[in-house]
Amino acid sequence: MKLIVGLGNPGKEYENTRHNMGFFFLDNYAKTKNLEINTKKFNGLLTEFVDKNEKVILLKPQTYMNLSGESVRKVMDFYKIDVNDILVISDDLDLPIGNYRLKYKGSCGGHNGLRNIEQHVQTQEYKRLKIGISKDDEMDTKDYVLGKLSRKDKKVLEEMVPTINSILDDFLDTDFEVLMSKYNHK
Q: N or C: which end of the chain has fewer CB within 10 A?
């Protein structure tokens, strides 16, 4: 069984903000499967499907970013999902907009959603797909990540959707080292 988690904040006021990259890309992926992520369970919204005889759960925690790990842990415990079968999609200030990076382990890099997941899964060794949102040194970080995307940035991110969908499809049945070497390019 696989679990793909998209991080973001629930509510209309957070739609199209930089911090909601996980929700954005997970929703787009669900569309390719003709699914909606709308079942309320485990402090989140989820849906599931079967890929090559393996169940796959798509989860959008609804606990707000800083408490994302609560929802992730509940799903892991209920479905008995191993931490090695999880992929978390999040925004990343240190990557330029339009870039992404698959990563197997490491620190949360100051990302509170990832920090909370680390606390709840009790390891920094879990798979991530980090989506670049750039950063603005002139702006407070909180204001920046909760700020709305510009039309130009939104277009760049929409152009990434087919690649991110391919990554998520490949995650389901590809060794993660192979996945990283296939997709992590400069």
A: C
Q: Which of 29, 1, 5, 2 is nearest to 128 (CA)?
A: 5
Answer for the pair 102, 174: CB distance below 8 angstroms, yes or no. Answer: no
How far CA 104 is from CA of 18, 59, 123, 153, in Å, comes to 23, 19, 11, 27
Cα–Cα distance list, 68 to 126, 127, 172 (Å):
14, 15, 22
Residue 186 has pLDDT above 70, yes or no: no
Residue 184 and residue 115: Cα distance in Å, rounded? Answer: 23
Is 111 catalytic? The answer is no
Residue environment code for 83-110, b if the CB has 16+ CB neighbours within 10 A, otherwise e: eebbbbbbbbbebebebbbbbeeeebee
Q: What is the pLDDT of residues 139-182, one digit of tens each?
A: 888 889 888 999 999 999 999 999 999 999 999 999 999 999 99
As a whole number, mean pLDDT of residues 24-31 equals: 98
Please tell me the pTM assigned to this model. 0.96
Selecting among 19, 111, 120, 185, the annotated active-site residue is: 19
